[in-house]
Amino acid sequence: MNSQSGHNFLCYIIDFSHRAHVWSPANLPFLRPYFPLAHEPLMRSASIFLPPIHSLRSNPFPISQVIEHFGHSITYLIRCFVDAAIMSNCEERSLLVIVAHPDDECIGAGGTIRRHVEQGVYVDVFSLTGNETRNEELQAACAGLGVRNLYLSERDDFAVDMSLIHEVIGAILKSRPIAIITHSQQDYNRNHTSCAQMVEQAVEWASHVTLFDNAHRVERIYNMEINTLLAKPNVFVDITDQYKFALAALKKHKSQVSKVDNFYLKLYDARTKLRGVQAACKRAEAFSITLPEHAGPFYPENNVESLV
Ligand SMILES: [Zn+2]
Questions:
Q1: For residue 133, what are the domain limits?
Q2: What's the pTM value of the predicted model, to 2 decimals?
Q3: How far is the CA of 65 from the centre of ligand 1 (A)?
Q4: Domain of residue 242, CATH code
Q5: Tens of pLDDT, residues 282-298
Q6: Is the same domain home to 206 and 232?
Q7: Cα 87 to ligand 1 centre (Å)
Q8: Which of the residues 118, 119, 237, 273 could staple to 112 if both were Cys, CB 3.0 to 4.6 A apart?
Q9: How far does residue 104's CA lie from ligand 1's centre (Å)?
Q10: Buried/exposed code over 273-298 (b: 16+ C-beta within 10 A; e: otherwise)
Q11: What separation in Å is there between the alpha carbon of 153 and the centre of ligand 1?
Q12: Domain termination residue (choose one: 88, 108, 131)
């Protein structure tokens, strides 16, 4: 079943079911191969995305075959396929991780990347600097985390400044993420703070329909921590089950992790435990949230009916 026939089939079902459905995560596993974009959190608010019934076309796809194939009741199927149909009308859930150096993606968000990949979220990584050795390590680390697209650079560490903003905008327009993970502006490392500033500005520019035909609006920026701990993290991601994968990925950065008596391995171990204590789990990664300004005058999304 390709996505097009899948979508038509969904319309056929919806003709019978109208909007009635109750989401349950248990519905999804056997549908994932057909609808990789169907995910739980967006489902919870999914009914708002359902197109009007009159706009849907029926389809000759034989429902009896589907029931036979899946062995489920029709009510169950209707519920599943309505959920999946809703998601087929949504943009892909994706994250873009933008870092100053190879290894930052692991130290700051390795477990978070892996956890989202396991949830079916597409994760891309863009490193502003790199060289042959470090890029090889980055490729190996990102393969272990399940990263989809990796954007590499051969740029030197000391060449990170605002002149790179067009590359950051280009990565955003290509990956089209719902949210970005990057550094914090409170970080002590100047490359990290430059990267964070650039991302914030690039998010605004990338969303301007007056500048780009393919403009894209990023909804949130998550700021991660490397050496500098965030004073006021807004969210914690429980990475208890992903820690071993994240640690294995971090170890792929061989040229870095052996420095100063395995400093980064010790740091990642201690920091994820500390954040785990705060988040009431074994291990966690912490983030603060930056909401993009989206201050242009051309956003229909900024038109609200009420402020309360
Ligand atoms: Zn770094």
A1: 94-293
A2: 0.72
A3: 54
A4: 3.40.50.10320
A5: 999 999 999 998 888 88
A6: yes
A7: 36
A8: 237
A9: 5
A10: eebbeebebebbbbbbebebebebee
A11: 14
A12: 88
